Amino acid sequence: MFRFLLFLAPLFLLIYCNRDLNQAAERKATHVYKTDCASCHGATVENFVERDWKYGSSRLEIIRSIGGNFPGGEKHNFARKMKEQEVQQLGQYIIEAIVARKQKMITEGAPTNGTYTSQGMTVQLDTIARNLDNPWGMVFLPNGDLLFTERTGKLWRLTPKGVKTEIGGVPATLVESQGGLLDVELHPQFATNGFVYLSYSKFRDSADVRLSTTAVRRARLEGDQLLEGVDIFTALPYSNTRYHYGSRLEFDKKGFLYISVGDRGDQDANPQRLGSDCGKIHRIHADGHIPEDNPFVTQKGVRATLFSYGHRNPQGIALNPLTGELWETEHGPQGGDELNVIRAGKNYGWPVVSYGTHYDGRPFTQLTEKEGIENPKTYWIPSIAPCGLLFVNSDRYPAWKGDLLAGSLRFKYIERIRLDGEKVALREPLLKNLGRIRCIAASPDGYLYVAVEEPGYIFRLMPK
Ligand code: HEC
Fold first, then answer.
1. Is 41 labeled as catalytic in the residue annotation?
2. What is this structure's pTM?
3. DSSP secondary-structure letter at 158?
4. Which of 58, 73, 340, 407 is the most exposed place for a label (fewest CB within 10 A)?
5. Could you give the CA distance from residue 370 to residue 402 in angstroms, rounded to a whole number?
6. What's the rounded mean pLDDT across residues 275-295?
7. Residues 187, 244, 311, 331: which is the catalytic one?
8. Domains in the chain, ordered, with CATH?
């Protein structure tokens, strides 16, 4: 017996020391994070968990980012003054925090009792779909079936009875960082022509790099298959970044299709330069033709689809059913997310005017207003990371009727915005901690649906 224990002792010692070493490594990584990273990335590593990653969230990619290996990242080379092993440990530390947080979110799952009370309205969550992979866009068919995208490249039909079928014929997409299969919309006369619109990150290989851009595919839905797909819009130029695709699609009452395109991470080259399609909102006819009264149709060197400019990353567009105006939310830099009304030919200011700040808190620009630049109707500091936008137009939610609902990825709630004309009269947080809100939609029978990601769910809000 004694000999047996003696035999095991080195093993225990090894395990014990290893545990000690691991703890020391973690303490070290925590310390490095506090001293070198927290000032910009937030007090705890948890901040990374909530990120819409630009340069990738794998261990290797995080380690590269610590070394400043991203466009304009020269000053971010924190790896330079660290030991190789410390960089590895820091990368590992960030990854472990992310994994731990995600596991917690999955086990927490949907809110337990699922009842949420707001000023004047109580709703009960009804889980429509679970275990989804980043649901991004949703739209209802006239028969009550829901079409929704998963960013990782799939389009699904979900019947009111809960039968889920994959739709074939979607375009190949570049599923990296913020890219993939994004929004989905229907032609206003879908019932007669069956046209479905998808926005996605389209890619092209040039020499040894893969480039991508925001594109819109129109196809006819027959059964569970998309047929005769054509790209009716492709933003130029293509870019080597993998983020800020924008990509919301919305029809107005006259049948024009609006497409949001983000700045693709190049704030100097894109949003204010009319010759670039990025950092813009575009307007086209449902078949891709250019409306004759678009604001820049006669201007040389400017894409005639262009409708408004100076945008950063617009990921919410909603048609006001009463006025026919188009409302929009976009991600600001660090702070300075905006709610705008989109008008022909107008400049929304990015990056000349912004309420946002750099990561270290310095203002981005001293200007928050300037002549010739539209002011936001409201803005958010800190950033809520707005995504998904909808006007409530249903009698099922009397206390919210006519209000705007803006989703927040970062703080996992929906903001209800009561308007008085174009003025923001009241803001109320709804559905706190529901999850990272990607999309909000309404069914033909007047119920509100919310898609959240990581873990991916679709909920219906049942008024109580
Ligand atoms: C002076 C401010 C500052 C400090 C200090 C700083 N960073 Fe960053 N970090 C940034 C900025 C700015 C970016 C680029 C973000 C962007 O482009 O949106 C960035 C990007 C990153 C990314 C990539 C994020 C993505 O979306 O892909 C990682 C990972 C990262 N930093 C980790 C660290 C770590 C770890 C430290 C500490 C060793 C650190 N940073 C210190 C400002 C800072």
1. no
2. 0.80
3. E
4. 58
5. 31
6. 98
7. 244
8. 2-106 (1.10.760), 111-463 (2.120.10.30)
